[in-house]
Design goal:
Elements (H helix, E strand, L loop, with lengths): L8 H20 L4 E3 L1 H10 L9 E6 L3 H13 L3 E6 L12 E10 L3 E14 L4 E6 L6 E6 L1 H4 L1 E6 L2 E6 L2 H9 L11 H4 L6
């Protein structure tokens, strides 16, 4: 999480600019990705980034990790702070030490991290139609399970001049995670409220 910032006003506009720049790099290197979590929810429900959200979310498959590493280097040269967060234990197709997310931050000066965070979550297929994701720092890590179709079957969503891939059946995907996703919940907690949690 990015902390206590909220993606509204000027910060929200800068977040959209960062999202467009980062996803253009993903596309340049041929990474197969989709919008995810609160970013996906805000776009399809309200046609915006949720103003009470504090980061941006994209997801991809573990099959894209090699490409993602090239993107990370490219983004670093563009001035972003980038690092891979890693799995802290084995679960299904996820092994301890595997990359679980690429965390991308803007910079504040040369040394300090900025106020914007974009997570690229890495989901691991089990070969049987499911994908697994580990989220959260070491002692609070949880595992989530998803139907693989949300990354295999996509459509494009336009916001302003940008188009982004999203799950074709985003209603089914969001319902599997949030339940009644059409009703805003501003104090939602991924540990306790995400219905995709399996561990």
């Amino acid at each position: 999480m990015a902390g206590n910032v909220k993606l509204e006003g000027d910060l929200g506009n800068r977040a959209l600019e960062m999202l467009a720049e980062v996803t253009s790099v993903l596309e340049k290197f041929g990474v197969d990705y989709a919008l995810d979590c609160g970013t996906l929810l805000g776009f399809v429900r309200e046609n915006r980034i949720l103003p009470w959200d504090n980061d941006m979310d994209v997801c991809t498959s573990a099959s894209e990790i090699k490409k993602l590493k090239k993107c990370a280097l490219h983004l670093w040269f563009k001035g972003y702070r980038v690092r891979f967060a890693r799995a802290t234990y084995d679960y299904g197709p996820i092994k301890k030490g595997d990359p679980r997310a690429l965390k991308i931050r803007n910079r504040k000066g040369l040394l300090h991290r900025g106020d914007l965070l974009l997570d690229i979550f890495i989901k691991y297929p089990d070969g049987e139609g499911k994908m697994y994701l580990m989220v959260g720092a070491a002692e609070e890590s949880i595992v989530q399970s998803f139907c693989a179709s949300h990354l295999e079957e996509k459509t494009l969503y336009r916001l302003g001049e940008q188009e982004y891939p999203i799950p074709a059946d985003y209603d089914k995907y969001l319902t599997s995670r949030y339940g009644d996703w059409r009703t805003p919940v501003k104090d939602w907690d991924f540990h306790n409220d995400d219905q995709s949690r399996v561990s």
